[in-house]
Write a structure and sequence with these properties.
- The protein has 238 residues and is of the alpha/beta class.
- The chain folds into 2 domains: 1-72 and 157-165 and 186-238, P-loop containing nucleotide triphosphate hydrolases (Rossmann fold, 3-Layer(aba) Sandwich), CATH 3.40.50.300; 78-153, no CATH class.
- It has 9 helices and 9 strands.
- The chain has helices at 44-51, 81-84, 90-95, 99-102, 110-122, 138-151, 168-183, 195-201, 217-220, and strands at 4-15, 18-29, 33-37, 59-64, 73-76, 156-160, 187-191, 204-207, 213-216.
- The strands form 2 sheets. The chain has a 6-stranded mixed β-sheet with strand order 5-6-7-3-8-9, with helices on both faces. It has a 3-stranded antiparallel β-sheet with strand order 2-1-4, with helices on one face.
- A hairpin with a 2-residue loop joins strand 1 (4-15) and strand 2.
- Helix 6 packs parallel to helix 7 (168-183).
- The protein is globular.
């Protein structure tokens, strides 16, 4: 039996009282795999920051159920160059996923470290734990950052263009890991421009833009959007 985790009612999101996109109504239940697609600048990343409660809605409302008000949503942001040079071990990077729960001067317990190792194991990267993050390939780094997001996730994992900049094999690996996590019960919310990927993995699809639509995968498959290969392109200022 799935449980309601998040529900948005005529939600408008943006910055400094300027709405980027409005009138979004959708929900996320346990066991869902929601893909968010839309053109550059449509507000996809802004919506994710609203889901993370980093910014407040401009209009409408968003309800968080269970214990999500206290955190419990993991976040894998888009890759950027600064992350790649992180001067820390893999284990330190993964443990930093607890900062939002522990504050800026965290003391990590044995239980924290065991959970971090468990997250690395779940995404198939436990052998990397003592390596320095900067020495890893792009695909390995993205997996470590996924383990970091997973450590902070109780029931929902938000991933923003998780294969951006990765080669074909690393991209396939990332999608497979996310699908495995979904099968284990984690709700996944993924921003993607790739319609084919959305049709393959999603249970629900949210198209945002001048008009926004929230569909099941089966409903989406019958629309004109489903005939396109990509919607939009890569963008870091959404």
């Amino acid at each position: 039996m799935s449980q309601r985790l998040v529900e948005a009612f005529s939600l408008g999101v943006g910055y400094e009282k300027k709405e980027v996109v409005g009138n979004l109504s959708f929900h996320i239940d346990s066991g869902d795999y929601l893909c968010i697609i839309g053109h550059n600048g449509a507000g996809k990343t802004t919506l994710m920051k609203t889901l993370l409660q980093l910014i407040k809605p401009i209009s409408g409302k968003i309800e968080f159920y269970e214990d999500l008000r206290k955190g419990g949503i993991g976040y894998l942001p888009q890759q950027n160059g600064a992350q790649r040079e992180f001067p820390a071990t893999v284990m330190e990077v993964v443990l930093s996923g607890l900062i939002h729960k522990k504050g800026l001067m965290p003391f990590y317990t044995k239980a924290d470290k065991a959970k971090a190792e468990e997250c690395l194991t779940r995404i198939g990267a436990i052998e990397l734990k003592k390596k320095y993050f900067g020495e890893l390939s792009g695909g390995q780094q993205q997996r470590v950052l996924l383990a970091r997001a997973l450590l902070g996730a109780d029931s929902i994992l938000l991933v923003d263009e998780p294969v951006s900049g990765l080669d074909v094999q690393a991209s396939e690996d990332m999608y497979r890991i996310l699908e495995d996590l979904h099968k284990e019960g984690m709700a996944i919310v993924m921003i993607t421009h790739d319609v084919t990927t959305a049709l393959k993995y999603a249970t629900h699809i949210l198209v945002i833009g001048e008009e926004s639509f929230f569909w099941t995968r089966e409903e989406f498959a019958t629309t004109e959007f489903a005939t396109k290969e990509h919607i939009g392109g890569h963008d870091h200022h959404d």
